[in-house]
Amino acid sequence: xxxxTLRLELRRSRMIALWLGVIxxxxxxxxGAMYPIILDNAAAIEDYMKIFPxxxxxxxxMTGSLADPGVFFSTYxxxxxxxxxxxxxxxxxxxxxxxxxxxxxxxxLALGTPLGRVRWLVASIAAQVLVxxxxxxxxxxxxxxxxxxxxxxxxxxxxxxxxxxxxxxxSAVAGIASVVGAVTLSRGIAAGITAAILIAMYLANxxxxxxxxxxxxxxxxxFKYLATTELVDAGMVPWASVAVFVVTAIVGWAASLAVFARxxxxx
Amino acid sequence: xxxxxxxxxxxxxxxxxxxxxxxxxxVQEGEVFGFLGPNGAGKTTTIRMLLGLIRPSAGTATIWxxxxxxxxxxxxxxxxxxxxxxxxxxxxxxRQTLDYLGAMRGIARGAWxxxxxxxxxxxxxxxxxxSRGNRQKVGVVQAFMGSEPLLVMDEPSTGLDPLMQRxxxxxxxxxxxxxxxxxxxxxxLTEVERSCDRVGIIRxxxxxxxxxxxxxxxxxxxxxxxxxxxxxENGAFDLPGVTVLSSTGQDVxxxxxxxxxxxxxxxxxLDVRDVAIxxxxxxxxxxxxYDGSVAGSEGRALADAxxxxxAAEPREEVSR
Lengths: 267, 320
Prior knowledge:
The structure holds 2 protein chains of 2 kinds.
Chain A: H1 2-12, H2 14-40, H3 42-49, H4 54-59, H5 69-104, H6 106-110, H7 117-149, H8 156-184, H9 187-210, H10 229-234, H11 239-262
Chain B: E1 3-14, E2 17-28, E3 32-36, H1 43-50, E4 58-63, E5 66-67, H2 72-75, E6 79-82, H3 94-104, H4 113-118, H5 132-144, E7 150-154, H6 162-177, E8 181-186, H7 189-195, E9 198-203, E10 206-212, H8 213-218, E11 222-228, E12 242-247, E13 251-256, H9 261-267, E14 272-278, H10 282-290, H11 296-312, H12 314-319
């Protein structure tokens, strides 16, 4: 029954995965194709970048030369495209079983069968994990494949590792959205709260980098940990990022399972 | 016969708002039990507790001795459920929906097909393109496609046209003949009267009456309309349980409660040209339990419904 529900959840995720995947691949492929141009004009671009305050550049992830694959990837994908794609996909997928399906009454039908609440939600979480992994993979693949075609010397293994970090970030967002959805049983409210949390984290990260005396603010959010530059450039695995994202995702999903299994299902 | 469903002191509050209060009822195996009441009376709340979707505030709901909240997945191996407005996924076709829900219940793929044909349901349209009635047909097929010994249905015929309502009642009769237990909530009085062995009438969250349909009808008033050859003498109908509603000499309208034999004995001595005796239906009884004591819009709605029913059924004018 769990496998059957997982298949259904994956099937229900096809359209959002397709459209977000197309957007991610198209954007990342264009960015990948631009890399040789950036590489050829690195000196001129760096001169141009000097007109911006260093802190502002740091706030938006542009620390170092765009000619470095890691900086290039973090700037255009890691801190720009992926948070948007991940937030949309994670919130949509994670609030579906615990909120949207309760609101529309589908959970009454599914849970009117011998399938228990925990197995129903576990199947849905498994679908979230797979779909978010697929989106992270195609996003990175768009940059890497097109980059290699146009002659960029990308390290495929390091980019694959970066895709894992992106995936873990999205999973952490899904964990938060899932527990908020299980508490509120409202997709609209859960999406709003999760989006507000992400925006607050993003602003905290930006402000923390612009104001060194409140640099600690960056520690309370995810965006400090969405760091792929050194991973791509130097092969250094950001274990702190892995830990933060994995723990958040697992705690979020586990909490949503605990809440969903015990609460009244009333839309 | 063993009890299939047992509610003991079942109570549910939504904050300070009443859901149901202190429900005590047992439904026997093989019985078709109707749970009758207007919108907001507490029917759906009761069914959601039976399905383990919400937890009672007090009391217990058990099915074959298993707790409806704690043992919900195990119970769902033995029951099929139909809601009043099932929340199907619009992008799925009826075929996909029924195959999925059937597989979850261990029902062979396509086993729903004969029922779909019987209800004239096109299984290949996405559910979002189906009319309200056709969506409800999907629900009826889904509920009846298995062989679970208990069917729990919340206003199951809502949206069905009269032909399909008749087909639905036939399915309930077949389920009863097969020994299945049916718990059916409704505000469709005719549906309950035609399909149920016993009826529980719920009013403002409380069960006000549980009885067989036959007993409910038999214990209550009958309307008797007489056309006499000549006016009856004064006091001709002074009998226990008999009330003269109106008399124009030869046309007499009576209301009789309880045993009708004394009245029949008296009529034998009169010059009776015509007599019509009508028993109350469940609708009459339902309004009796709601009559005059339901405040606000619900009361007005019931009064309107009663007036409409009275207008449609001339014999009921006499009985009231």
